[in-house]
Amino acid sequence: MKLAANLQEQVASHLRRRILSGQLLPGTPLREQTLAVEFGISRGPIRDALLHLTKEGLLIARPNVGVRVANEPSGFKRNVIVHLRREIEASAISAWFETKDPALLKQLDDNLALYKEACGGSDLGQVVELDMAFHRLLVEGADNGSLVDLWLPIMLRMFLRYSRHRDLMESYHEHAGIVRAMHARHEWEALEALKLHIV
Amino acid sequence: MKLAANLQEQVASHLRRRILSGQLLPGTPLREQTLAVEFGISRGPIRDALLHLTKEGLLIARPNVGVRVANEPSGFKRNVIVHLRREIEASAISAWFETKDPALLKQLDDNLALYKEACGGSDLGQVVELDMAFHRLLVEGADNGSLVDLWLPIMLRMFLRYSRHRDLMESYHEHAGIVRAMHARHEWEALEALKLHIV
DNA sequence: TCGAGGAACATTGTTGACAATTGACAATGC
DNA sequence: GCATTGTCAATTGTCAACAATGTTCCTCGA
Hints:
The structure is a homodimer.
Chain A: H1 7-20, E1 29-30, H2 32-39, H3 43-55, E2 59-62, E3 66-69, H4 75-99, H5 102-120, H6 124-140, H7 148-159, H8 168-183, H9 187-197
The structure holds a DNA duplex.
């Protein structure tokens, strides 16, 4: 996985995974002191991590009261999010077709293999992780990865309802379809597959 | 202005204004200890504020090294940002045309008056503040303001180059054009004016 | 001259203690 | 009975000291 040097990142990664995999349901409050004991560290890095996740949209904070896991976005908001993700990821794919760097294809192929396996298994956290990694690879490929920080909070908000509304194997085939179109150098087909995949 | 109860927010607001108004140029490093002395408080709230602004895209952080004011987005990234802002704000305006709540028009009119005045003056910080407030009103009007947290970081990244590339009075007239179309209940015209305004 | 090592410094990361705020509930007055 | 006020526990906000890390610059040897 990722080896974060500082505690703040470790805590944030851990909590992020627990939220996205559905282990922490919307509305669940997170107490700084409780988490500090749980992780065996002080409240400082916990605070930083919670602030991090709040800005990513996974938590909502009320001053002097605390944070809790954010609710799924409303239908209206989710619809906007879908369009934003499409815009970002489509731009990234179009940018890739300018260079057609084979390194990215290699990474996507590797991810696909792992993803297929994970979708068959039972570790939902792993599935989420790989799904996210797939799209992250796409976004990172464009313009030196400058879009990632823009894309991540949008992506995360959408994944708040990941666990409960997904046919995993179908999702895998959609990923595979995108990569196939990229291999075949069919830009329009790749963009169309992406658009149909993000809903 | 806004009266934040906690120091963290006060510091964040203050620094945000200084960055957006161009007093703090891209690349400028911000030291926790220096700011703590400057504000007369300890490093704790400063840390929180810097983390805040980092997640908003105004600062970039390197672990164990510190933060500095972010650079303007690349041409490629800026183009994506433009499309994202259009998507969000257009959605918000379309949502308003479902209800046509006159309260929003009143607020926009008030903002326009202040904005016109500020564009004539010399306080660039004030101009930025009011320009941002205008668009924030639009976004807040839709779906109980659920889009604001999505919109803000996108907006802020775009405003990193605000000070150096704007004809203020023209900007005012564009705002006025949008509001005029809303008063006249011409949705298409409002959306078109918005699209032309966000570039 | 140039690069490797390393000491000194500046800066961020972490910690535990204390202060301020909140929300719930009991006591009070009408 | 009902609103108001006081009190208390839980929680976040703030602080100052200490630890760990990164940077700078100097020395030393080839």
